[in-house]
Amino acid sequence: MKFSGREKKDLLLAGLMISLAFAILLSGGLSGILSQGFLIIFVIAFFTAGIGFLLHELMHKYVAQGYGLFAEFHAYYKMLWLAILFSLFGFIIAAPGAVQIFGRITKERNGKISLAGPMTNLVLALVFLVLILVLSPPGILRALFGFGLTINSLLAVFNMIPVMPFDGAKVIGWNKTTYFITLILGIGLFILSFFV
Fold it and tell me: Which of 27, 44, 57, 76 suits 4 as a labelling partner, its CA being 20 to 30 A distant?
């Protein structure tokens, strides 16, 4: 994959800012920032929400470039600051950015490019589920794996909302069967995350 200087900066800052927003949310908002364990919570947020977001966007880019299209990630800094602001008050709205794609895009290509992001989150959710089931980890590792399962399945489901600009609108426009299989798998993993 090829990256511009701006894109590298946008990916790094968006990954760190979305991780910070989730860390604030996980730690209980404004009061949690000053807590002794905030750094640990930030690390958990980075290796689950942050990495999940970054890999989601990179897979859109990878598939698009595989089709010979121009694809570059652009961060939405206003939305990133809003995500951090809202997390201080106990909720989060995450729209950190998107991969801008230019070139000849058919409905099928657009559907497959869009599917690549949520599928990446589902694969990550499955990896975290397997780690929980196989390792039965204690303490911080259990928290990391559990949150990784929950947030990645939620990211997949959220992105499958079937209206623009979400990935789901382009996937359902291309192949309804693929759309519903992906959505059901994401919902199933999200529900399962509360029982493992």
Answer: 44
d(CA 180, CA 188): 12
* Cα–Cα dist 72/103, whole Å: 12
Same domain for 1 and 90, yes or no, is yes
**Of 7, 57, 72, 108, which residue is the catalytic one?**
57
Number of domains in the chain: 2
Residue type, 58: L
Helix then strand then coil, in percent of the chain rounded to 5, is 70, 5, 20
- Residue 33 neighbours by CB under 8 Å, 6+ apart: 24, 27, 88
Residues in contact with 135: Cβ distance below 8 Å, sequence separation at least 6, in sequence order: 141, 145
pTM: 0.91
- Same domain for 126 and 101, yes or no, is no
Residue type, 109: R
Query: What torsion do the CA atoms of 133, 137, 140, 142 make, to the nearest 10 degrees?
Result: 20
Within this chain, do residues 131 and 83 fall inside the same structural domain, yes or no? no
How far apart (Å, rounded) are the C-alpha atoms in residues 51 and 145? 13
Active site residue 108: no
Domain that holds residue 64: 1-105
Give percent above pLDDT 90 in the chain. 80
Query: Could you tell me if 84 and 99 lie in one domain?
Result: yes
